[in-house]
Specification:
By secondary structure, the chain is mainly β. Helices cover 1% and strands 46% of the residues. A 6-stranded antiparallel β-sheet has the order 1-3-4-5-8-2, with no helix packed on it. The chain has a 6-stranded antiparallel β-sheet with strand order 11-14-15-23-21-22, with no helix packed on it. Strands 7-6-9-10 form a 4-stranded antiparallel β-sheet, with no helix packed on it. Strand 17 and strand 18 form a beta hairpin. The longest helix has 5 residues. It is rod-shaped, with a radius of gyration of 30 Å. The two termini are 24 Å apart.
Length: 343
């Protein structure tokens, strides 16, 4: 059961009003207009609302509507009466941002992807400017339907802060389970049979798979996965410096190793996109692969997927260094299958 009342000590990024002789009883004060937002200092008491977005975790507190604000410094400094006019009320809002656990570092946006918050009343909105303050007093109509709205990269989350039977994880894009990377190591082969009686050694790989996530910025115009699906990111490092051994007509043959383009599937489906280590999208790396080739693969899965099989395939070719030896070219196709269970 969620706690009904919470207290948030709100950090303030703007100075308090000072040097003003106004009081709540001064003449000339006007009534707060519906939709006006006043930055405040100090504690906010009310209903806790957790909002978890791809870029951060936010612990909100939203008070019930009340006739008179307990933070007159915020409104009196604006020559506004701390008592709401007939048919109006005040709602206090505050939040604190927390560091996220899990392996979300690779999901952080490149550049300044803004997060926006509003207090919605009867379908209209008052923006909560997190650049200037972490807590506010908002004037709303009396008996208004109140919602807290968060928006990130074109997608909105709307939450009823007073719903004590709130659906689980209404405000959490990760549904209560932050993603984690799982590691899988493929030991290299030693002397496995290739074509033409030769043997192949090599093929070491390292695979890291991130649990399904709803958002990944480089995935498209917006980073959100389509409805009913999620993204799976896999970082695959594959050793391409395999080698061949074997004789031809009783003579040892030195062969230079060549290779093709690796292919990858997750449950039989090819990746939607492929990226280098800096998340720059790439199409092919055959001419630019180092001894240990590393790339990120982006797959799309159904949002209820619990496990999957990642398969990779790469063909190595051994080309005789002495073209006049008569020794044949030999091939070996490396195949790996990695079973992944998502947490």
């Amino acid at each position: 059961m969620r706690a009904h009342i919470a207290t948030l000590v709100a950090a303030v990024l703007i100075p308090l009003v000072s040097g003003c002789s106004s009081t709540p009883f001064d003449d000339g004060e006007r009534d707060a207009r519906v939709g006006e937002v006043f930055a405040v200092a100090g504690e906010v008491e009310g209903h806790p609302v957790d909002v978890v977005l791809p870029v951060g975790s936010y612990d909100f507190v939203v008070s019930s509507p009340h006739e008179e604000t307990g933070r007159p410094a915020a409104v009196v400094g604006e020559e506004v009466s701390p008592k709401a006019a007939d048919g109006r009320a005040f709602v206090d809002v505050g939040y604190a941002r927390h560091r996220m656990d899990g392996d979300v570092w690779m999901l952080q946006p490149q550049g300044n992807e803004p997060v926006r918050f509003w207090l919605e009343y009867d379908g209209k909105r008052a923006m909560l400017d997190g650049e200037s303050s972490y807590s506010w007093v908002v004037a709303v109509p009396e008996d208004a339907e109140i919602r807290l709205v968060a928006e990130f990269d074109g997608r909105e989350i709307s939450i009823d802060p007073y719903d004590q039977v709130m659906k689980s994880f209404d405000g959490d894009v990760y549904e209560g389970a932050l993603p984690h990377l799982t590691d899988h190591h493929c030991a290299p082969y030693q002397g496995v049979r290739a074509s033409q009686g030769a043997e192949f050694s090599g093929g070491e790989c390292q695979v890291e798979v991130l649990d399904p996530v709803p958002w990944f910025q480089p995935a498209g115009s917006t980073g959100w996965a389509p409805a009913g699906s999620k993204w799976v990111l896999a970082r695959v490092t594959l050793e391409i410096n395999g080698y061949f051994s074997g004789d031809h007509q009783g003579q040892y043959v030195r062969r230079q190793t060549e290779y093709g383009e690796p292919t990858y599937t997750l449950d039989g489906k090819a990746p939607r996109a492929m990226f280098d280590g800096d998340f720059n999208q790439i199409q092919s790396r055959t001419d630019d692969m180092t001894v240990y080739d590393t790339r990120w693969l982006l797959f799309r899965v159904a949002d209820d997927t619990d496990d999957a099989t990642l398969r990779l395939r790469l063909t190595y070719s051994g080309v005789p260094e002495d073209s006049g030896s008569g020794a044949p070219r030999v091939d070996y196709t490396l195949k790996r299958a990695i079973d992944v269970r998502f947490t």
